[in-house]
Amino acid sequence: MRWSRYYLFTTREVPADAEVISHQLMVRAGAIRKVAAGIYTYLPAGWRSLQKLMAIVRRELDAAGAVELSMPAVQPAELWQESGRWQVYGKELLRLTDRHEREFCFGPTHEEVITDTVRRDVKSYRQLPLNLYQIQTKFRDEIRPRFGLMRGREFLMKDGYSFHVDAASLDATYDAMLAAYRRIFESCGLDFNVVEADTGAIGGSSSHEFMVVADTGESAVVRCPECGYAANVEKAETRPLPPPERGAGEAAPGERREVATPGVTSVPDVAKFLGFAPDRIVKTLLYDTEQGLVAAVVRGDREVNEIKLANLLGVQHLTLAGEDKVRAATGAPPGFAGPVGLAGDVRLVVDRSAADLVGFVCGANRADAHLCDVDWSRDVAGELERGDLLLVGAGDACPRCEGTLELFRGIETGHIFKLGTKYSQAMACNYTDEQGEDHPMRMGCYGLGIGRTVAAAIEQNHDADGIVWPRPLAPFEVLLAALNPDDPEVGRAAERLYGELRERGADVFYDDRDERPGVKFKDADLVGFPVRLVVGARSLAEGKVELSLRRDREKVPVAVDEAVGRVLELLDRA
Ligand code: ATP
Ligand code: MG
Q: Does residue 375 have its Cβ closer than 6 Å to ligand 1?
């Protein structure tokens, strides 16, 4: 491809709304163009990178036995009503009405459509298992579209769905997909971790996310360097915390006593005021849920993991309660809640490590007062509902071994999930077994963000001058630049090299533009072609051209006649 005939326009300007480097560089390198918030045109060079990723995805999934189809973007409301998601999906779902006043949505995901498809065609256990996938445009009306293709509203996703008679069959396909995803991200040259992910109310450890390591990632992940345990912090576990140390000579807890703490509400302030370490204080947070008010208690030195809490309660919605509700439940303004003497209709759930405390400090459910030397069994009526509510962080103990957890940030590029019979049951997607009995199929689903993965590759592969594409995702692998194409010698040599490279099957882009050498070098760095071959009058006079890798930019003069062979060799090291 000749640059003079191609649609690739670079810019030095950093777009004002581009917070992360991949977004900045994709715009500057002429890969994408914003049309509206979270909605982009994939310009030709960007589209080539996306297509290269899609080819890798198809290669690995086809090899693993998955079968490609393509489902519509616009989906009838009836299917979503059947699954029950029409009501619960919320504002991310873009709802549409057609000229006959029929309701539709622009698909954010395709469980409903695929389940409807399969239930029409598949009746018998003999037809299962099945594993279907598509690469298709989704729309999610994200509250904060940002970071370019990383969190768009309209975006390309590979989504796959599998159907099974039993758990063993689902496990086998799930494992095959996990391995295929590994191969896909390895093929892209990405540094990633496979981590355990939250499965919501379904439970179990049957969901994994693929996290590309990047400081700009929106997900927090913990990892044990000893045993390799890795999990999204939404789901991460740790061993129960070691009990707080008691001061030397400190007596066992005595009678419960109320102390005045005028205007002192936060844990650090209470700790300072009363002279207790925060790990001897408990924090009581009141949440509004569809089941009513809930009081969650954690140790004062720790935070509540709201996803664990929602799963434990079995609720969909969880928000911190407003002041009125706090007053109604505790009889006090916010900041003085505690587990002793809460209103009877408030469900109390206590994190394991807080429940293990002996003689602790908590709010007194009275304005400007706290309680000291509180004892769960003595002071709180009834059986304590305890669970793991802890937000795990760096330095916590690994739940699997003696190691210590580290924290890193990641970009979630893939997510696989065992769905069980959630959709097949709701939508009567059944098979008949050998005895002639009907059962709902078991399902798995497998998502991979196409644009997000390409953006993640740039987050990991760039320098001050631009993108440093890993070869598999580069829009073109080789840049051939003629520094002065009007010079007849240079023009002839460059044309000949271009022809030869194409003949030898190289993925070559020819900068034949009438631009200054400085512009050409800057553009080449910005767009990030892995291998560069430069034809200039000075070296050509000595029968040489200059070869370099984008990664280190070390220039090597090579004889014109050997140049093509050397390019092909170098590509293998790019
Ligand atoms: P997130 O937590 O980042 O919103 P999600 O859990 O909603 O992601 P899934 O529903 O599992 O994502 O979608 C599968 C994959 O689709 C994700 O792993 C990600 O790569 C991609 N993806 C999801 N939302 C977006 C988006 N708004 N823009 C680009 N890619 C996305
Ligand atoms: Mg999402």
A: no
